[in-house]
Amino acid sequence: MRLHVADHPLIAHKLTLLRDVETPSATFRQLVEELVTLLAYEATRDVRTEPRDIVTPVAPTTGTHLAAPKPMVVPILRAGLGMLEGMSRLLPTAEVGFLGLQRDEETLQAITYANRLPDDLSGRQCYVLDPMLATGGTLVASIDYLFERGATDVTCICLLAAPEGIATVEQHVGERADVRVVVAAVDERLNEKGYIVPGLGDAGDRLYGVV
Ligand code: URA
């Protein structure tokens, strides 16, 4: 697994506003979109391209175009939905699939409760959107799900990560270079309730309210 922690003053500034308990939902949503667009720039560094011949008003030239098949963006419900707009802004031609995962309270394993993805993801580059990499269970299940359907590489975009979650993903996927995690910051730890510390609280609740 390759980990990239974004190191940019604008990201640090927006993340600080995002963490602030006083930040209202509308501002929170706006900040998430902006942060994802900045992270997506880094996360798409390895997006596959092919040469394309075009003619400018001055001369023919060979440029670069995103290669087929189209990349697949996969927001993890529900909080990942808040990241979709920011990602789509940078990658408007990508297709979007949805994955809903929740923890089985008995086995503590992540189980899929919703899925709107093609069965065959052969050759597709996938971009998983999940704001909080906490225990890592959801991300590991998502990565497995996508690879089982033939995805060729998986890049996870997260806003915050706990060291425990990063370790879980690392242990699960090992040295694979086709799994990347791009994150705005790595925090101190998880608390006893599984929240990232200092974190930003429950990302879904802060985006959409407590429902
Ligand atoms: N999910 C969240 O929304 N927040 C955390 O701190 C951990 C998991």
TrEMBL record:
It is an enzyme of class 2 (transferase). Pathway: Pyrimidine metabolism; UMP biosynthesis via salvage pathway; UMP from uracil: step 1/1. Uracil binds at residues 196, 201-203. Keywords: Allosteric enzyme, Glycosyltransferase, GTP-binding, Magnesium, Nucleotide-binding, Transferase. One of its GO terms (molecular function) is uracil phosphoribosyltransferase activity. Binds 1 Mg(2+) ion per subunit. The magnesium is bound as Mg-PRPP. The keyword Cell membrane does not apply. 5-phospho-alpha-D-ribose 1-diphosphate binds at residues 78, 103, 130-138, 202. SUPFAM superfamilies: PRTase-like (SSF53271). It catalyses: UMP + diphosphate = 5-phospho-alpha-D-ribose 1-diphosphate + uracil. Residues 5-209 form the Phosphoribosyltransferase domain. InterPro entries: PRTase-like, PRTase_dom, Upp_B, UPRT, UPRTase/APRTase. PANTHER family: ADENINE PHOSPHORIBOSYLTRANSFERASE, URACIL PHOSPHORIBOSYLTRANSFERASE, CHLOROPLASTIC. Catalyzes the conversion of uracil and 5-phospho-alpha-D-ribose 1-diphosphate (PRPP) to UMP and diphosphate. This is Uracil phosphoribosyltransferase. The lineage of its organism: Bacteria, Bacillati, Actinomycetota, Actinomycetes, Micrococcales.
